[in-house]
Amino acid sequence: MSVLKDRSVMAKDLEMYSATRLEPDYVVQLRQRALELYEALPVPQYEKSDLTNRRVDAFTINTTPPDEHLWRPVAEPYIAQHAEAPLLVIADGVLVYSRGLEAAAAQGVIFKSLQEAVVSHPELIKQYLHSVVPQDENQFIALNSALWRNGAFVYIPRNMMWEAPLQMISVTTVGGHGTFVHNLILAEAQSQVQFVEIYAAPPTLSDELHVGVTEVVVQDGAHVKIGTLHDFPTHSTNVIVRRAKVLRDGQMDWIAGEVSEGYTVMEFGSVLEGQGSRSTSHAIAFGSKRAHFDLTSRMVHVAKFSDSDTTARGVMQDQAEAVYRGLTHILKGASGANGQQSEKLLMLSPESRANAIPMLLIDENDVKCGHAASVGQINEDQLFYLMSRGISEAEAKRMVVWGFIDPVLSELPIAAVREAVESVLERKMA
Amino acid sequence: MSTSPVLQINDLYASVEGKQILKGVNLTVRGGEVHAIMGPNGTGKSTLASALMGHPKYEVTGGTALLDGENLLELAVDERARQGLFLAMQYPSEVSGVSNANFMRIALNARLGEGHEMPVLKFHRELQKKMKALSMDPSFAERYLNEGFSGGEKKRNEILQMTVLKPRIAILDEIDSGLDIDALRIVAEGVNSLRGPEFGLLVITHYQRLLQYIVPDYVHVMMQGRIVRSGGRELALELEQRGYDWLKEELGIVDETVSAGV
Ligand SMILES: Nc1ncnc2c1ncn2[C@@H]1O[C@H](COP(=O)(O)OP(=O)(O)OP(=O)(O)O)[C@@H](O)[C@H]1O
Ligand SMILES: [Mg+2]
Question: Which residues form the signal peptide (chain B) (predicted)?
C-alpha cells in the first residue's frame, strides 16, 4: 500500500492544510510526526481482509467547502430527529451545522468540533489525544493522525450527569479525499454522557478511504455510552478503531450498527484498567450487496473484578460476507474478572458468508469467561410454520430476520441509535 | 367462498430425503365432517399432514390433492393457507423476536386480503376473548411466538391460531399430546366451536380419549403409508382396546414399526 505521493510533497501539502486551518504549532508537529510514522510503519496485515485490491491510495488533500445540496439530504433525517439533542454536522471535514452547544457549555459540557477544540483546549488535547489509541499503533492510525479532517470533542466535567445524547453526523459527499475522522471523548469522575456518531454518504460516492478513530477516557465511576451507525456505500474502504480506557468503577457501553455496503475492518471495545470497571457492547451488522465486514469486539481486562459483556447479531444477504471476532483478553493480575460474549450470525442467501470466531485469551486463573457463537441459515421449519398461516415467503423471512435481530436491537441503550438502525434495516432488507 | 369445503386426496405418494413414506393415500374430507387418523408411530401420519401443507422437505411423488377442486400441490405453502387449509403441527416452531399477537394479526390480514384488514383494536379485543376461552393468560399475546412455551401451551396456541384464522379444512396433528385432562377439554371446546358445514376436520391422534371430546364421523388407520382400514367411531375404541397387531395380522403386514403402545 503506497497511500501517499512523494513524502516531501505531502509534508508540504499538509503544512499548507494546517496553515489554511490556522492550526496551532503543536498540531502541525503532531501531523508531521504522524506522517513520519506512517512512512516507517509496516502495512497492517488483516487475516481475513485483503486490502491490496482496494483503492486506498487514490486521494488528495481537499479544502473545497462541501456542497449543501449534497450533504443536506443525507444529514436531514438525523437533523429532523431528536431536536433537543445537541448536534454537530461535519461534511467533508468541515463543520457545517450545529445546535444546542451553548446550552451544554452553560453547564460546563464542552461539545465542539476537534478542529475548534485544538485551538480552544490545547491542554486537554495535548494530554489525551492518542492516549488511548497510540499514534504509532499501525499505519492507518498514523495516517488518520496525520490527515484528520475533523471529529467531535466531548468533555464532561466531574459529577455532571448529562442527559440528552450528544450527536455527531459525519457526511462524506466527495470521494477521493479520505474521510479521516477523529473523536475524543473525556468523561471526568462520576460523570455520565451519551455520544452518538453517525457516518453516512450519498450512494453515489466514488472510491473513498475512511479511517476513523474514536478515543474515550472513562474516569473513576463515570458512565459513557457510545452509539455508532456506520452507513457507507459500496465503493468505500473503512478502517475503524473505537477504544475506551475505563478507570476504577467506570462503565463503558458500546453500541454499533454496521450497515455499510463497502469493505470494512472495524475494532471496538474497552481496556478495563480500573478495578471494578465494566464494559458492554451490542453490535448489529447487516450486510447487503458485496459488503465485507471484518469486525472485532475487543475487551481487555487489566484490573481485578473487571467485567465485560459482548453481544452481536449479524445478518448477511446477497453476496455479503462477515467475520466477527469476539476477543476477550484477561491479563495476569485481573483476578475476579468476568468476560462474557455471544455472537450469532445469519446468512440469508447461498452466496453470503459468515464466520464467528470467539477468542478467549486468559492469563489469570481466578476468572469467569463464557462464550456462545453460532452461524446458520434461516430455519426452514420456522419459514414453513409462518407460511402455513398464510404469510408470504418474503414477509416470513423478514419476520424471522427481525426476530433474530430484535433481542439485541430492542436492548440498544440509546433510542436515537435504535431508531436509526431500524430505519436503515427497513430500507436495506430485500 | 361460503360453500362447503372439500379436500380430496387421491393415490398420494410422498417421500422424505429419498425415502418413500406415503404409498397411495386416498381420503376425502368434506365440510361438516370429522375424520380421525390413527396408526402406529412412523407410519406416515405427520408426513401426510406436512405434504398437504407443502413442507419443502416432503416431496410429493404421485397422486393429487384438491381443495375445492383446486390443485393444492401447485400452490405455495402460504397460498394453501389462504385457500383455507390449516395445520396444527405436532411440533410447532419457536420464532424468537416475533410477538404472538403480531404474528397472528399479520397472518389474519394475509388471509383476509388487502383492503379487508381487521382494525388493530378489534383484532386485539377478539384475540383476548379467544385466549380467555382457551384459558390462556393475556401475557401470551406479547410473548415471542412459542418461545419457551410448554408442550401444552404450544398446543393451545395452535388452536388459538386456528380459531383466529377460521380455516375451511383443518388438520390437527396430535393436538392432544402434552395436554392434561382439563386442557384437553378446553382445547376440544375450541375446536368444536368451529364445527359446521363450512369446516372440515382431520384429526391425527393415538388416543381414543381425544375422540370422546371431538367426536369423529370416520376413523381411519394408517400403516405403511396407506390407509388400511376405515370405519366409524367404534373403530377407535377397538384399536384402543386391542392395539394394532390384530389388524396387521389380518392384513398380512409384517414390519418393524413398533405398535403405538396405547
Ligand atoms: N424430516 C424428516 N427427515 C427424515 N425422516 C423423516 C422426516 N419426517 C419423517 N421422517 C420419517 O418418515 C417416517 C414417517 O414419519 P411420520 O412423522 O410421518 O410418522 P407418524 O405416523 O406421524 O408417527 P408418530 O405417530 O410417531 O407421530 C418415519 O420413518 C420418519 O422417521
Ligand atoms: Mg406424527
Answer: none
Window 86-115 of A, Cβ < 8 Å to B: none
Question: DSSP per residue over B98-166, as a string?
Answer: EEHHHHHHHHHHHHH-TT-PPPHHHHHHHHHHHHHHTT--GGGGTSEETTT--HHHHHHHHHHHHHHH-
Indicate if ligand 1 lies below 6 Å from the C-beta of B21: yes
CA distance B119 to B243: 50
* Ligand 1 within 6 A of CB of B38: no
Nearest to B26 by CA among B10, B5, B3, B43: B10
How far is A267 from A228, CA to CA, in rounded Å?
13
Separation in Å, CA B152 to CA B91, B110, B134, B182, B213:
11, 27, 12, 11, 17
Is the pLDDT assigned to residue B108 strictly greater than 80? yes
Instruction: Please work out whether the CB of residue B17 comes within 6 Å of at least one atom of ligand 1.
Output: yes
Cell numbers placing A216 = 474515550
Assess whether pLDDT exceeds 90 at residue B71: yes
Cell 456505500, residue located: A233
Go through chain B and tell me how many residues it has. 262
Instruction: Tell me chain B's radius of gyration from C-alpha atoms.
Output: 18
- 169-198 of B, contacting A, C-beta below 8 A: none
Say how far apart CA A125 and CA A104 lie, in whole Å: 19
Which residues lie below 8 Å from residue A400, measured CB to CB, with a gap of 6+?
A: A378, A379, A382, A383, A386, B95, B98
Question: Which strands, in side-by-side order, build the sheet including B6-16?
Answer: B19-30, B6-16, B58-67, B70-71
- What are the backbone angles phi and psi of residue A385, rounded to the nearest 5°? -60, -50
Touching check for B77 and chain A: CB below 8 Å? yes
Position A2 scores a pLDDT of: 46
Which pLDDT belongs to residue A57? Answer: 64
pLDDT at A176: 86
The CB of B41 under 6 Å from ligand 1? The reply is yes
A374 lies within 8 A of chain B by CB: no
pLDDT per residue over B176-194, tens digit each? 988 999 999 999 999 999 9
Question: Which residues, including other chains, have CB under 8 Å from residue A415's CB and lie 6 or more apart?
Answer: none
Look up the pTM and report it.
0.84
pLDDT over 80 (residue A237):
yes
CA of B178 to the centre of ligand 1 (A): 19
Q: Is B259 in the pocket of ligand 1 (CB under 6 A)?
A: no
CA–CA dist A212, A328 (Å, integer): 23
- Contact between A53 and A73 under an 8 Å Cβ cutoff? The reply is no
- From chain A, the residues in CB contact with B92 under 8 A are 385
Contact criterion met (CB below 8 Å) for A168 and A138: no
CA–CA dist A216, A199 (Å, integer): 18
- First and final CA of chain A: distance in angstroms? 35
Question: Given the DSSP bridges, would you call strands A263-272 and A236-246 parallel, antiparallel or unpaired?
Answer: parallel
Under 8 Å CB pairs connecting chains A and B tally to 84
- Cβ distance B55 to A402 less than 8 Å, yes or no, reads no
Chain B residue numbers with beta carbons less than 8 Å from the beta carbon of A382 are 93-95
Ligand 1 atom with the smallest distance to the CA of B49 is: 18
Most A-contacting residue of B59, B85, B86, B98 (CB-CB within 10 A), to test interface: B98
ipTM given for this complex:
0.95
Q: Beta partners for A347?
A: A316, A377
Sign of the alpha-carbon dihedral angle for A63, A65, A70, A72: positive
Domains in chain B (CATH in brackets) are 6-92+168-251 (3.40.50.300)
Whether residue A318 has pLDDT greater than 80: yes
What gap in Å lies between CA B32 and CA B23, rounded to an integer? 27
- Angle among Cα A167, A172, A178 to the nearest 5 degrees reads 115
